[in-house]
Amino acid sequence: MSIQQDNRFQAIISHAKEYGFVFPSSEIYDGLSAVYDYGPYGSELKKNIRDYWWRSMTQMHDNIVGIDAAIFMHPTTWKASGHVDNFSDPMIDNKDSKKRYRVDHLLEAKADQLRESGQANEADTLLAEMDRLLAAEDFTGLKQLMNDQKIVCSVSGTANWTDIRQFNLMFSTQLGSVAEDADTIYLRPETAQGIFVNFLNVQKTARMKIPFGIAQTGKAFRNEIVARQFIFRMREFEQMEMQFFVRPGTQMEWYNYWKDARLKWHTSLGIPAEKYRYHDHVKLAHYADAALDIEYEFPFGFKEVEGIHSRTDFDLKSHQEYSKKKQQYFDADVDPSTGKPYGNYIPYVVETSIGLDRMFLLVLSHAYEEETITKEDGTSDNRVVMRIPAKIAPNKLAILPLMKKDGLPEIAKQLLDECKPHFKCFYEEKDAIGKRYRRQDAIGTPFCVTIDHQTKEDGTVTIRHRDSMKQERVHLSEIKSMVLTALT
Ligand code: GAP
What is the mean predicted confidence (pLDDT) over 215-219? Predict the structure, then answer.
């Protein structure tokens, strides 16, 4: 990360705290590493992103329905899904500092350094070699690569490393009050399994026909060894996942459909397409026959925000095996090659999986801007503006009576009463109007309306647009529909 990028990222983190988006968890006790709380504007923004995703899945697709499964699941779920045996990362410890690292993170950081020093080809070669060794699970080769690259621990400064070992990322806890009777259960590391185990419940009760999808949002937990970069990688986070059940043999068609559809969802928020790229996986997860990441250019470089995975019939087949309950679907459609119905099969699955917190960080990274404004009198001023897309902004409209007297608050409150059933409004009487505008810019409110003495005479108000700072005089009765238009 260049100093400029690092400064921008640090400025975003400070801004997020100062303006009530994100706080370190239990801060009065000095916080808890890689755990964060969302403040008044953060929780609104997070909810709006979640709702925007949920609507795009369950409202805009008539063949997708939602569920809300529990975080705790029967422990065999995680045996069947492969997480007990396979959900681990190669780690290495530095013997001097006793610090533990993910091997891929150390090598990626080295590649970033190479790139910053103008050695882009060397960086690409290093990453390609890392991918090859990870895919082959060649830990001796990976350690050799670390030695060749002279990678040292950032704390001790030495290359005194242990061998590379796998560590499982699931958190476990006990169900039941008496330790001896207790069963070990896991905090779910992905929401997807709640969808798989409910596949037939949903298919039957909602009378779904293949192809169809099941969407879910909710918390997931991973004991990330190196959690870093603010809310980018956390130990408790939220996922928005959709499993799309398809006829075997058609999965690549749907994989390509969702690859396209999901990028369109991102750009529909007005975030430029050039800030995104696809990254095809070389090392496929134990359940996938194709997979890619949608990456976004964060202040610290292009990183994964969403995964599209063709998961084959791995999960349903495995749950059928472990539970001894058939996970089949009867397809009455006629197969043109045989002239007979497709009949019974275990569907294949294409999954779209996006981290809500990561999407939140993406929105903050896109929105944050420090601007110098030249005023009419030739002097200049600075402002921080959060250009959050209006559709997901925490507040849509700030209603600001110019003064606390002369009946202006009464008119303002009438407007508030008219608008608040339709979208989130903010009301404020205190401070000079310029100061109030700046505060709304800093939390990303797309519109401010000022009620002044002229309003009493002709019913007009000043509406100010956040991004252009343009102000126009319109009638009070137009405000609600102006804001609603911007939200569609
Ligand atoms: N069900 C598939 C699955 O969980 P994943 O690639 O491991 O796939 C999907 O995770 C998404 O969840 C990622 O693209 C990322 O946005 C988010 N995510 C994963 N681990 C995370 C973490 N530790 N902190 C925040 N978000 C995370």
Answer: 98
